[in-house]
Amino acid sequence: MRVCISDVAGGLAGAPVVPQVFWAASEPESNVDPEQLAREAVDKMLLTGPSIASPRAAAHYVVGMPMWMWVNQSPTTYGPNSASASLAGVTVIATAKVSSISWDMGDGTDAVVCNGPGTKYQASLGKAPSPDCGHVYDKASTSEAGGKFHGTATATWTVDWTVTAGPGETGEFTQTRQSAFTVDVREVQVLN
Known about the structure:
The protein is 6% helix and 45% strand. It has 1 helix and 12 strands. It has one helix spanning 34-45; strands at residues 2-7, 17-22, 51-54, 60-62, 66-68, 70-72, 81-87, 90-104, 112-114, 134-136, 149-165, 170-186. Strands 4, 7, 8, 9, 11 and 12 form a 6-stranded mixed beta sheet that branches. Strands 1-2 form a two-stranded antiparallel ribbon. The protein is elongated.
């Protein structure tokens, strides 16, 4: 409903003012952008970069030996994580989960892209390479700043969203979060 006041006397001073009422045939269309609401829901999730379990900053690694990389999984570091946001009668639920992690190993080689959290290394596996997320350094880190390679793990979060109250829509977008790590890589000295 909209109420308008008009001056029916053509602008004459002291003339009576008559309100006019207009009724809309239907509710006005919502100007709410559901994807923007989904992005607001993601902000509530407090997503972070990967929680790197390996490589460990305090560990020493060896040139030519397979390194296994993996991350700890929680709702804020790997997902899944869900939240909702609402505005003007429109409610969106968003669910975020890491779909891949790109590891820049800091040694100038191409990034290692892993489509899962990686597999935790077990000593019984010896020198076997990781089945899903690993790297082999071909040089020591001694000439690098602090004697370590400086790398980054970049998680790509895939966000699926659905409008649950309002016009039925769905969508998807991605966001990235990053964590830094260091790796101390040494050469094995052979003694005669």
